[in-house]
Each structure stands twice: as C-alpha cells, then as structure tokens.
C-alpha cells in the first residue's frame, strides 16, 4: 500500500493550484493536499503542521520565493521545497537551490509524470538528508560523550596514580618502620636472652627450682619474641628488595639433620613422632645454608604448631633437572582448599580472630615462599582437613649467581660429583648418601 503524503501548495493563482492537484491525482499519488495563497500563510501552516513536501510558486503577492525560503530556513523549518517557476526563471532557480530549495520545475512542464517524479525525488532526497543530519547529530553527541568519558577516565587515572604513589610511600614507610623497630627491639631482647642464660649457669649461683622455672620461662619467651622480630625484619627486607642470598657449598643432609635436632624439644613437648628420611646420591648443594635452614624451621614450626597428635616426616630426595626436594608432612588439622590461595600471603592466617588458638605473625609461609622464589624454586602444597598437610620445596641444586667480576667459582653439580673450578681447579667427590633417622623416644 502506497504511503499517503501530506502536501502543501503555495500559489496565489487558482489555476496553477488546480493543475498541481490534477497532475498528482492523475499520477495516482496518495495524498492529503492543503493550499495557501501567500508566504505569510505558508509560514503559519508549516509552523503548525508537518508536511512531506511543499510546492512553492516563486512569485507570491507578499514576497518572492527566495525571501520565503530564507525565512523558513532561519526558522529551522525543514521540509522539501519544490519551486514552481515561470518561463525564463532558470537563473533564479539556481539561486533558489543555493538558498535551500530541494528542486525546481517550470510551470510549463507540469504534468502528472514529471510532477510525481519530482515529488518522489524531493521526498527521498529530503529524508536522506534528515538521516544524515540525525546521524551527524548522534555522532556529535557520541563524540561529546566520549570526550566527557575520556576526561572522567583521565581524572580517575590521575587519582589512581596519586593513590598508588601514596600507597607506595606508605608501603616504604611501613617497611622502614618495621625494619627499624625490629632492629631496635632485637638489641634489648638479645640482652634478656643472654642474661637469662647466664643466670641458669651454676657457676653464677644456685637458683631454687621456682627461680629456675621463672628464668627458663623468661628465656623461652625471649627466644620466641626474638624469632617473631626476626620474621618481621626478614619480611621488611624482602618487601624492600634488600635481602640478598649468600650462597655457599654445603652438605644439605647435615643442615637438615642439625636443624631437626635443634627442634627435638618442641616435638617432645607435644609428644609427636618424628622421622627424617634422606635419599641423596649427592648431598652437596650450592645455596644459602642459613636461608635453607630458615625455610625448614618455618615448615617444621608450622607442622608442630598445627599437629596435636601423630607424626611429622621430613623427606629429602633428588628429582629430575638437577634439583632437590624437601618435603615436610604432618598429621595436623589440615588446610581447606579455599584457603590454599591465601596461605602464602603476608600477615594472613586461616583464623584471623584475636582469640585464635594458634599464635604467630602470619609471616612464616610468606617469607618461605619469597625465599624459595629467590632461589629459583617452587612450593607444592597438599592438604586435607582433619588429615594433615604436606609442604614440598623444590630447589635447584645450584642457585644462579649474579654477574660478578673476579675469580668467582663456577660450579657444575650432578648426582655423582661436584666440580669447583677457578684458576686453581679443585674437585670434590662425594659418595652416595642414603639415610633414615627416626626418633622413637619421641613417640607417645
């Protein structure tokens, strides 16, 4: 079904208006046609009604068509304008097109075919122009919106950057404060520990049983507090990137066994069984023995802390890729899978309440994780609630040294021997070392 068009004819000549009506009717145009005789009435009609097209006589009694077009355009009235001109007004028609007319047609050429063709063309061109105007307006609005959003994003970026700078400064001050306070507190704490040890020596006087018990409590609590201070100090150094490894060649099995031996009393106090199993063809490694010991102490301390009854195993094995593995297993309370991703976060403990059963700073595993990563290794965690946990540390047998100048030894380590070569080569040959050490007297 053809669209019905709302058409306005502006002409003071009744015959010309009838000719337009007759031609459009004959062409089969579905329309509602209105007629006015002057420019003033045309402006009033266009201000109150939406028309699909206007046929405008150039010569009106109150004004010419060019003046009327200028008035319509200045009033933001947008409608297709087809100007009907007399004979010889072609030059005027060009000016009308420049002013904003959509098309023009000589009255001598008005016919049903030409008038319908001009009408459809004018409507089609006008609607296309309106779509372009609408699209252009939407583009401008989108552009302005993007500009506002970009300005807002830039403002937010600057705020985030400022907040990051503040956070970095706060983190730096926090690390500096932790390092300073830990260092300052270590001095009097070492004095407390030292004087407690002196008081327990018989040559400085015999203490009563009650006095001995009190001094031993002071000593044990002092050592515990010193351990916490050392954890905070190490964390602050790691956080600031100021902790450096000091690698050396050492016997891993001896470090493991001596560390375990130093912690016997802790296992004994909780009546826990302890088994150390070493399966190394070559026990020599090139690493920081102090930090390896610290890693083991952290893992064993956790195993003791969270195991009320049962056993703790320490296993040292060789694994492919010229690496060694240290595993600490326990029969403790275990860790829920949802807590795995948080267990190595600094100051994070599964129970964060102030009434928690298991004390500590929450830094042990965070420090262990940082040290293992510094050594080029990795940590594997396996745990089940109510069954126990296993922390497995995998380390390269030889950690990578920073580039240095001089006669720094270059070590080639394998499962059979270690060769240390400098300008004066030396060779170290080791025999297979397999051992299992158990402590049955610690069993309940």
Explain this structure.
The protein is α/β, with parallel strands linked by helices. The chain folds into three domains: 5-110, Response regulator (Rossmann fold); 167-237, Signal transduction histidine kinase, dimerisation/phosphotransfer (DHp) domain (Helix Hairpins, Orthogonal Bundle); 244-442, 2-Layer Sandwich (Heat Shock Protein 90). 47% of the residues lie in helices and 21% in strands. The strands form four sheets. A six-stranded mixed beta sheet has the order 11-12-10-9-7-16, with helices on one face. Strands 2-1-3-4-5 form a five-stranded parallel beta sheet, sandwiched between helices. A three-stranded antiparallel beta sheet has the order 13-14-15, with no helix packed on it. The protein is rod-shaped, with a radius of gyration of 47 Å. It starts with a strand and ends in a 6-residue tail after the last strand. Residues 352-356 and 404-444 have low confidence and may be disordered.
Detail the topology: elements first, then pairings.
Elements lengths: L4 E6 L3 H13 L4 E6 L2 H10 L4 E5 L7 H10 L6 E5 L4 H10 L3 E4 L5 H88 L9 H32 L7 E4 H11 L1 H6 L3 E8 L3 E4 L1 H17 L5 E9 L3 E8 L33 H11 L3 E7 L3 E9 L13 E4 L3 E5 L4 E4 L3 E6 L6
Helix pairs in contact: 1-5, 5-6, 6-10, 7-9, 9-10
